[in-house]
Amino acid sequence: MQHLDLQVIEQALDWARDGETLWLCTVLATFGSSPREPGSLLVARRDGRHVGSLSGGCVEEDFLARLRDGEFDTDITTLRYGDASQGPRIELPCGGILEVLIERLAPEPANLVHLEVLHATLLGQRPLVRRIELDTGRVRFVEDSGLGPRVECEADSQAVRVRIGPAARLIIAGISPVSAACAEFARTLGFEVIVCDPREEERRGFEVPGIEMQSVLPSTFIASGACHATTAVVALTHDPRIDDLAMIEAVRTPAFYIGVMGSRKTSEARAERLCRSGGLSDDDIARIRMPIGLALGSKTPAEIALAVVADIVRVQRGRARNEL
Fold it and tell me: Is the pLDDT reported for residue 155 higher than 70?
């Protein structure tokens, strides 16, 4: 999930508590060009006030106009924007097709509870799935690993499964030129980015807007309970005093991605060292991606960071390397 999703649900909860009926929209699928991925959220009121995004603006304008005109009074509606068979009114300038689920939520106790569970899930440690029956509008929560596509349609097409969970988090262990580029890429992709480094001289020269800085050893921060199931941990300094300790703590967490920078030779030496001195098992070592990232032939800090973040996204989406 991205931070924008949390803003959407917080606003939805505020409006529902104030007795407002609201419409919660979820992007179910995209075909062709689309600026927002499946699972993206928007919440709106009848008067047009809204938070969130479904596209670059063309879909929102049409949806809000139709909402103000009194449409979408049923509990659940699905629309395909950009599908010529549904009329030119919803043709997308970008030429893509966007399928949107629209849920009408009256300020009833059951809907308030549902929004509160959504809010708690976005802030908590445990990912869930919202299973929505498209014919009845019935919704329930299902346990989930948090990995895989954001939206899945069940085989009979009568229900969709929408993954929700804490905003994707990236913990960067130690500051280096690669760390700066990695933080910028991840922040742009909607990750909550936290950089940990106890060295004041390194922190002084590190300037990446929109990230959180922790002036402690990364291992200390990781051990504090900072990792949940949608957390990635990467060590990018080449300093074993920082990188090795971060890996020892990271494998004790539910983080979905753990990786450390270094050549194959360096990685082999690190694996032996982590087993001998760090007490890690073979299973622990298997969780650590070393060398880190996709094999793109990267040379510069930005290219290495691209390979790292691309690999994180690959694992997050449940894609095997041989599927790329």
Answer: yes
| Alpha-carbon distances, residue 33 vs 26, 56, 93, 97, 239 (angstroms) | 17, 11, 10, 8, 42
The count of residues in the chain is 324
Task: Tell me, yes or no, whether 261 and 173 share the same domain.
Answer: yes
pTM listed for this prediction: 0.71
Interatomic CA distance for residues 142 and 126, integer angstroms: 11
pLDDT at 88: 47
Residue 106 Cα to chain centre, angstroms: 28
Backbone angles phi, psi at 133, to 5 degrees: -85, 120
Q: How many domains does the chain have?
A: 2
| Nearest-angstrom CA–CA distance, 52 and 26 | 10
> Which tokens in the block code for residue 293?
């990232």
Looking at the structure, tell me whether residues 47 and 156 fall in a common domain: yes
Which one, of 288, 275, 276, 296, lies nearest residue 315 by Cα? 288
- Residue 204 main-chain phi, psi, to 5 deg: -65, -35
What confidence score (pLDDT) does residue 81 get? 81
Q: Are 80 and 99 in contact (CB under 8 A)?
A: yes
